[in-house]
Structures are given as C-alpha cells and as structure tokens.
Amino acid sequence: MESRGSSSHGETGPQPEVASGATARPEMDERLLPLAQWSVSALARACAEETSRFLKQDRADERYCLELFRRALLLRDEEAWACLYQQYAPLVLSWVHQHPAASPVLEHDGGQSVVNLVFAKFAQALTPGRVQQFDSLAALLKYLKMCVHSVVTDERRVQQLQQLEQTLEALEHEPAVADPAEEVVAQLSAQDLWQAILEELHSEEERMLIYLAYVQGLKPSEICLRFQHLFPSVNDVYRLKRNMLDRLRRNRRLQALMKGC
C-alpha cells in the first residue's frame, strides 16, 4: 500500500503526462523554428486551429495560414495547395450553396465541380505578383468568396446561353409541320425577356407576326390566309421569323439581359 502511495505522490508523477503531451504534437518542436522551416503538415495543423478561431471571430494568429497560402500560391507547392484545398473546400461549398443563383449549377454533383472551378480561378488570379498584396487571412478568404460569386455567375450564364443555343439550333432545319420559332419565343418569354423582344422588333410586320403567332396562336398558313397583304406566302412567314430570331440571337442588349438573369 505504501509503495502505491509513494508512486502516486512522488515528484515524477505528473512529468510523464507533460512529456507525453509534448510528443503527441510534434509540431510543438517546430514552433521554435522560423515559419519558413516548418513542414507543410505542421503549418496546416496550426492554420486549421487559427482558422477555426478566426471564423468564430476570436483572436487568431494568422501567420501560419499566410505562410501556407504563400507556399501554395507563390512557391506553387503542391502539398501546401492540397492542404489549402482540404481545409477550405467545405467553406467554399457552403458559400456556393448560399449563393442565390447557385441552384441550377448544383444539380449535377451538388456543387463539387463549382468548388474545383473556384479554387482554379483563385490560383489563376492570385499570381506571384498579387499574392503579396494580401496580407491577412480575412483578405484572402474575402477574395476566395468573390471567386465563388464569379464562378457561379459564369456557370449560370453558360447554362442559359447553352439552353438558348440549343433552341435556336432548331432554326437551321425548317420543319415540315411544327414551327420551331414558337419554341424559341416561348422560352425567351419564360425568361422575362418578352418586353425586351418587342422593343427590338424593326417593323409593324414583325410586331404583327409576333402577336398573331404567339398571342393569337395562329399557324403560318392561317397567318398567310388572313393577312396575305402582309405575308403573301407561308415561306414569307418563315423567312420573317428566321430573320427576326437570328437578330435576337446576336442582339447585345438581349445578351446583357441574359447575363443578368
């Protein structure tokens, strides 16, 4: 009993716990070295701790994260870049999901491809000459978030233009029965561009054709029969529609509206 008591109250009792605690975190030894001599893994662990404090709005030592960003962006260290991606990808993905225009671009893989594009844009934009302009973790994360907005906006615009182009491709092959122009204008109208289209029409014939075909729902043969003085033949109806929609495709104002959708 006495031997147990002496061992529990001896001077060497708490010391092994302190020693084991120190050896459990090998980066503690590296904290005595300049940051430039730290391993990437030690930097990543320290950066993760300080980022957690930063996001909680607690006081954080940003030196570790800045050094990790410096190695990834300035030195192009692949290991440092992999650590940055692993650490900040969940944060970037949360920003993507919070973006008001992100829903359509999340359908494919939940936003993972967008996250990859964000990091690619971030790395491409922050050239070695620009990296030194970002002297805080707040500035770097703010720019990373700006890349989220830029990528989501670009991806949404690409989707819209692809949808429009797919519909307009139908004009290259005139159908025997259905009129593809109806689908084109219907799609544009659904995107709140109807008023803009009307303002871009060049003549009374075009405005009349829009009204007859898409408000009254008349077929080209019916339009030609009732308003032969304006449209002498069915081919004239198709020709006018084709020219009109081809102009809409190239119209800069409508392209700008598409980008803002």
Key words describing this protein structure:
261 residues, mainly alpha, 15 helices, 0% strand, rod-shaped, disordered N terminus
Rg on CA atoms, Å: 32 Å
Strand portion: under 5%
Largest β sheet strand count, sense and barrel closure: none
Coarse morphology: rod-shaped
The domain count comes to 2
Give a count of the beta strands, DSSP E runs of length 2 or more. Answer: 0
Poorly predicted runs of 5 or more residues: 1-27, 170-181
* Number of helical elements: 15
Sheet/helix structural class: mainly alpha
Global mean pLDDT: 76
Work out the helicity level: over 70%
Strand-and-helix sequence, N→C?
HHHHHHHHHHHHHHH
What is the straight-line distance between the termini?
Answer: 81 Å
Organism: Thermogemmatispora tikiterensis
Biased composition (Polar residues): 1-10
Region (Disordered): 1-24
Protein name: Sigma-70 family RNA polymerase sigma factor
Q: Can you give me a brief rundown of this structure?
A:
Residues 1-10 have a biased composition (Polar residues). The chain has 261 residues and is mainly alpha-helical.
What does this structure look like?
It comes from Thermogemmatispora tikiterensis. The protein has helices at about 1-10, 15-25, 25-30, 40-55, 65-75, 80-100, 110-125, 130, 135-170, 180-190, 195-200, 205-215, 220-225, 235-250, 250-260. It is mainly α. The chain folds into two domains: about 15-160, no CATH class; about 175-260. α4 (about 40-55) packs parallel to α6, α5 packs across α6 (about 80-100) and α7 (about 110-125) crosses α9. Residues about 1-25 and about 170-180 have low confidence and may be disordered.
